[in-house]
Amino acid sequence: MILHESNLHPTVRMSEFKRLLRLPPQYVFGDPMAGHVEWVQSWFSAHGRPWLSAVAVERCEADGDAVRLDGVTVHSRELARRFRKARSAIVVAASAGPEAEAEAAVRWEEDEPDRYYFMESYASAVVEALIGEARARLCVWADARGQVLLPHYSPGYHGWTVGDQAMVFSLFGERVQPGPMEVMESGMLRPKKSQLAVFAMADARDAAGEPADLVPCKYCPHLKCDFRREPSALTA
Q1: Contact, 168 vs 187, CB < 8 A?
Q2: Following CA atoms 202, 87, 59, 188 in sequence, which dihedral angle do they give, to the nearest 10 degrees?
Q3: Helix (H, G, I), strand (E, B) or coil at 76
Q4: Which terminus of the chain, N or C, has less C-beta within 10 A?
Q5: Closest C-alpha to 82, from 18, 4, 154, 13
Q6: CB 151 within 8 A of CB 214
Q7: Cα–Cα distance measured from residue 46 to residue 40, given in angstroms and rounded to the nearest whole number
Q8: Domain span holding position 193
Q9: What is the pLDDT averaged over residues 185-204?
Q10: What value does the mean pLDDT take over residues 131-135?
């Protein structure tokens, strides 16, 4: 594996947390919401066990609406468009951990819907932060091999059925994950605050001049990255 880590504490951008709470970026937390924010941050710091793993896919080929990832073939015209310059890929699994899901259930059972909502939203933000931090590290990994990392895409995104989760997860083979993850028959993941993401890699010359949606830098939170190829559209 390229990455295999548990008990992580990624930096959650407050603007992303607010977005997941369906609040505007400029919103200022007052009581009692400020207390919920402090509680969920403290809970994750003390009890959360987010984890992340990544495995290399040596061969990636796009043809029509089919994308072949080593021995696995998935069908998505949108994915094939995005991966048309790819030669290899990296599959990432990230999870906020079962502890967060269990704590959210406790809050619901104890009739604390606000804390349930804050826990659910913060756990989603943790997963996004894990994917973002993985992106930054994988850019370094790809650069050392003369390649560039393209933006990730996940089953369930536009044009790619969530039913392909099991096939994507199968690319990990018999490797043991840092934490539990299960793909249900519906394609949903357990714990539910988890994500599978596929990052394609292309030769630097092939990726030059690609449209904005095929360059990961625009929405990457790592503003001082040495591998940045495009100004960031994000604000702190």
Answers
A1: no
A2: 60
A3: coil
A4: C
A5: 154
A6: yes
A7: 10
A8: 3-11+50-97+127-219
A9: 94
A10: 93
Report if residue 58 sits inside a domain: yes
Residue 128 host element (H or E): helix 113-143
% the chain with pLDDT above 90: 74
Is the distance from CB of 194 to CB of 127 less than 8 angstroms?
A: yes
Confidence of residue 229 (pLDDT cuts 50, 70, 90): very low
Indicate whether 134 belongs to any domain: yes
Q: What pLDDT digit, counting tens, does each position of 78-129 carry?
A: 999 999 999 999 999 999 999 999 999 999 999 999 999 999 999 999 999 9
| Alpha carbon distances (Å) from 152 to 2, 75, 91, 167, 184 | 16, 16, 9, 16, 22
CATH classification at residue 196: 3.40.109.40
Q: What is the mean pLDDT of residues 52-79?
A: 95
Token reading at 166: 């099991």
| Dihedral (Cα; 216, 175, 192, 234), 10-degree rounding | -20
213 is a domain residue: yes
Residue 175 lies in a domain: yes
Please give the pLDDT value at position 107.
Answer: 98
Residue 227 scores a pLDDT above 50: no
How many residues make up the chain in this entry?
236
Taking alpha carbons only, the member of 73, 95, 81, 91 closest to residue 154 is: 91
